[in-house]
C-alpha cells in the first residue's frame, strides 16, 4: 500500500535517481514555457523524471528507450513499499560503499533477467556509481564505474512521491517517433534529448547505449516543427546553445539560459554552459 506523501504545489520535488543532465534546476524555466491549458504532458526522453515530478497535468505519457528505466518506473508505480523493502538490504549492506561490492552487484545486474531484481540493482548502481551516469557497452552491459562517494542518501521519500504521482502516468519503452504519435490535441510534448555536443566535430552523446547523432537531432527538430503545424500540438525542446542547434530550431521561439554542469568531479571543470529551450508553438488560428 502506497503511503500518501504530502507536498505543497510550490515545493520542488527531486527524483529518486541521480541523473547526468537531469532537469531539476531547469524545471521553473521549463514550466513557464509549457502550456498550462493542456491536459497531458508527453515526454519522449523522460530520464529521471524531474519535469514530470514538477509539473501539474491531469495525465502523463512518459517514454524512454532504456528498458531498465521504464521497468523500474512501472514496478515503483505498482508497489513502492515492496520495492523499498527489497532495496534497503542492498543499499545498507555493510560493504555497499566499496568497489568490490559495487562491481559484484553490477555483474549480478548484467547477468540477471529477473525484472524485479534488475530494478532494485539499477537504483543501487545509480546511487553508488559515478555521478549519476547511465551507460551501457556494445554488449548492452551496464558499465558505469564505482563512484567513491563519501556519503549516501536513501531516497525513500522521493520514491514514494514518484509512485504516488505515477498513478496518473503511463510509462512506455519506445523512441521519440513512437512517442510523438501518442500525443493528441490535449497534449504538450516536452523533449530532453541527449544534448548535441558543444564541439560539433565530435559527438560522444550516447542514447541509452546507442548513438544519438546530429542526424537524430535534426530529425527531432523537424518532427517538432511538423507536429506543431500539422497536428496543432506544441513542442518544447531543451538542448545546448550552439550554432548547430540554433539552425535546426530556427522555426521555434528560443529562450537562452545558463546552467551549471557537474559531470566532472573536478570543480574547475563544472562550468556554466549556454542552453536553449526551443518552443514550437502551433500557428495562431484565424478568428473568422
From TrEMBL:
Q: Which UniProt keywords apply?
A: Methyltransferase, S-adenosyl-L-methionine, Transferase
Check the record and name the PROSITE patterns matching this protein: N6_MTASE
Q: Which reaction does this enzyme catalyse, per its entry? A: a 2'-deoxyadenosine in DNA + S-adenosyl-L-methionine = an N(6)-methyl-2'-deoxyadenosine in DNA + S-adenosyl-L-homocysteine + H(+)
Pfam families attached to this UniProt entry: MethyltransfD12 (PF02086)
| Enzyme Commission no | 2.1.1.72
Q: Which residues form a coiled coil?
A: none
Q: Which GO terms describe its biological process?
A: methylation
To which protein family does this belong?
Belongs to the N(4)/N(6)-methyltransferase family.
- NCBIfam families from the xrefs? dam
By what name is this protein known?
Site-specific DNA-methyltransferase (adenine-specific)
What organism is this sequence from? Exercitatus varius
Amino acid at each position: 500500500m502506497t503511503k500518501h506523501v504530502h507536498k505543497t504545489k510550490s515545493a520542488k520535488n527531486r527524483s529518486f535517481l541521480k541523473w547526468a543532465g537531469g532537469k531539476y534546476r531547469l524545471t521553473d524555466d521549463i514550466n513557464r514555457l509549457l502550456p498550462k491549458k493542456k491536459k497531458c504532458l508527453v515526454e519522449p526522453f523522460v530520464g529521471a523524471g524531474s519535469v514530470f515530478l514538477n509539473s501539474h497535468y491531469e495525465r502523463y505519457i512518459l517514454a524512454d528507450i532504456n528498458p531498465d528505466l521504464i521497468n523500474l518506473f512501472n514496478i515503483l508505480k505498482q508497489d513502492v513499499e515492496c520495492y523499498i523493502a527489497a532495496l534497503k538490504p542492498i543499499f545498507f549492506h555493510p560493504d555497499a560503499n566499496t568497489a568490490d561490492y559495487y562491481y559484484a552487484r553490477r555483474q549480478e545486474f548484467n547477468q540477471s533477467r529477473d525484472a524485479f531484481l534488475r530494478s532494485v540493482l539499477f537504483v543501487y548502481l545509480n546511487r553508488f556509481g559515478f555521478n549519476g551516469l547511465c551507460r551501457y557497452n556494445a554488449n548492452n552491459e551496464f558499465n558505469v564505474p564505482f563512484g567513491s562517494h563519501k556519503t549516501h542518501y536513501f531516497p525513500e521519500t522521493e520514491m514514494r512521491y514518484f509512485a504516488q504521482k505515477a498513478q496518473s502516468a503511463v510509462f512506455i519503452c519506445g523512441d521519440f517517433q513512437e512517442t510523438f504519435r501518442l500525443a493528441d490535441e490535449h497534449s504538450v510534448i516536452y523533449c530532453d534529448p541527449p544534448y548535441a555536443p558543444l564541439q560539433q566535430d565530435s559527438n560522444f552523446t550516447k542514447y541509452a547505449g546507442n548513438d544519438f547523432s546530429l542526424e537524430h537531432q535534426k530529425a527531432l527538430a523537424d518532427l517538432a516543427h511538423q507536429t506543431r503545424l500539422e497536428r496543432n500540438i506544441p513542442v518544447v525542446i531543451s538542448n545546448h546553445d550552439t550554432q548547430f542547434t540554433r539552425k535546426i530550431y530556427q522555426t521555434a521561439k528560443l529562450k537562452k539560459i545558463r546552467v551549471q554542469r557537474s559531470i566532472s568531479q573536478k570543480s574547475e571543470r563544472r562550468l556554466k554552459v549556454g542552453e536553449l529551450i526551443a518552443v514550437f508553438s502551433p500557428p495562431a488560428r484565424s478568428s473568422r
